[in-house]
Amino acid sequence: MNKYRTHNCSELSEKEIGQNVYLSGWLHRKRDHGNLLFIDLRDHYGITQCVIENNNDFFPIIEKSKPETVLKISGKVVKRSSETENLDLKTGKIEISIERAEVLSNAKELPLPVFGEQDYPEEIRLKYRFLDLRREEMHKNIILRSKVISFIRSEMLKLGFLEYQTPILTSSSPEGARDFLVPSRLNPGKFYALPQAPQQFKQLIMVSGFDKYFQIAPCFRDEDARADRSPGEFYQLDLEMSFVEQEDVFNVVEKLMVNLFKNFSSKKIQKEKFPRIPYNEAMKKYGTDKPDLRNPLIIQEFTDLFKREDVKFDIFKKLVKTGSIVRGIITKNTKDKPRSFFDNIDKWAKDQGASGLAYFTLDQDKEIKGKGPVGKFFSEESLKEIIKNNNAEIGDSIFLSCGKENEVEKILSLARNKIASDLGIIKHDQFAFCWIIDYPMYEFDEASKRIVFSHNPFSMPQGDVKKINFKKPLDIKAYQYDIVCNGVELSSGAIRNHIPELMYKLFSIAGYTEKEVNEKFSGMINAFSYGAPPHGGIAPGIDRIVMLLAEKENIREVTLFPMNQNAQDLMMRAPSEVNENQLKELNIKKNIKKN
């Protein structure tokens, strides 16, 4: 090795008993037994227990050292007694009898402990991230991230892909999130944008004659933080393929994900051939295009039931007559659940901003009846219809929501997860992947009162291009798709539109003139006019993949140096002020409005 260590802190075993060694690392913790002082010395690789007697000249050095002081110790490897062995450690059968000790770097009083995994406020953890990263679980998460990325690179090469790097300084995009802008010193008044994704560049790589591209790509978006989304920047596995159809992309990604998740987790993959779920079906059955298929509950349609004369639930019937819909969730064999179970779910729904969830249980004495607050409003014949049409049985309970379609979808999507969690029926030992397909090309934006792209504006519409009815744009479906795992969207992707004339037409429906398309997408639209192959791709998020594998709820637990909710780096104090000379050189003046 070198002057700091002959071994790392996870290497030593009974094979080295009797050898003189020296180790370097952080003082993880210290235990004073009077005439003996025990320390755990930690480095990147692990922990070794060391012991020093109080008559040793170097005893005062270690005694005075605070936790996280960096030490170099030398001594002899000795066997631990059987009662003091620690089989949780690789080095748990030996310890170092310290002969000499040297402080390589002193540590101040710690703002948060490294030993132990107790929770600390996020502000402290992010300000002292270098300490937080020394903690065992965080350290393992970041190592996992590194190994996942290495594995992905290896697998992509095996699948015939080559890695290329795309520019970081590029032009602003009119779609998607807000751009991060970079002023150009050499071009006063003009700005670069950091790429929200290498979207146009990876398509241009296909136009350039390369067949299979991938990149572990940094992406920059000025958007708000969420548990599964970092503010500012994130990484994705960006890939693109030429001369492919949708299924070709699916086959590549499925092979990668199955191998990846099998390699880094012992959890079962629910279906290795991922289900394909049309967007409209996903919204009806799950209330979301990010369904967690570990949850067996399905949302079902009940609107027509409330058109029957023998259903007397007048509140819902009046709403249905004015265009509202009724959908619900059936829970199997929940007749013995206490009233509090149902009332708590109703109260929870109200806390989410809904009007609550109506509920009843299918019961049978001499006849079939509804048991619960609204059960009395349903005749026996109407309950038989529920049993027949909705695969229900005596003993099942039904939660109902009535309102506008988007409102019902929202609350029942949340309720589906809430109810399944309360019942303990989510299969947490599985990874459940699916593809959401057949997205609409456009949607009507209520805020701007105009038709906008619903997903990726560069997607190919489905069907024969010559027969598409452009007068009904909301009926046009696109070759767009999302991959979802356990309710987390890993990525969106699409088969791309590579025909300039078609691109002008599709953008015109969303309000763009041909001149605007040429200005905003000049590089790509120009390239397509010189012969472009049919191509498609996708870009699964690295952060979200690692978050799932590490079984974490927040993406900051698998990111080295994340920002806080306000997009601030508390450790490096970014964003920061810059001096007037820098601004003058960039031809920029500050115009900050005071509150």
Description of the molecule:
The protein is of the alpha+beta class and 595 residues long. The chain has helices spanning 59-64, 122-127, 129-132, 136-158, 199-207, 246-264, 279-286, 314-321, 339-351, 380-389, 405-423, 500-509, 514-520, 522-528, 542-549, 580-585; strands at 20-32, 36-42, 47-53, 70-79, 94-105, 162-163, 181-183, 191-193, 212-221, 232-242, 268-269, 276-278, 299-301, 325-331, 358-364, 368-371, 397-403, 430-431, 433-437, 442-445, 450-453, 480-485, 488-495, 535-538. The strands form 6 sheets. It has an 8-stranded mixed β-sheet, sandwiched between helices. β1 and β2 (36-42) form a beta hairpin. α5 runs parallel beside α14. The protein is globular. 34% of the residues are buried.
Proportion in helices: 25-40%
Which runs of at least 5 residues are low in confidence (pLDDT < 50)? none
**Major β-sheet, in short?**
8 strands, mixed
Indicate the overall shape.
globular
Question: In total, how many beta strands?
Answer: 24
Which structural class matches the secondary elements?
alpha+beta
N-end to C-end Cα span: 60 Å
Strand content: 15-25%
Quaternary class: single chain
Instruction: Please work out how many helical segments DSSP would assign.
Output: 16
Average of the residue pLDDT scores: 94
Radius of gyration: 30 Å
Question: How do the strands line up in the largest sheet?
Answer: 6-9-10-24-23-22-19-12
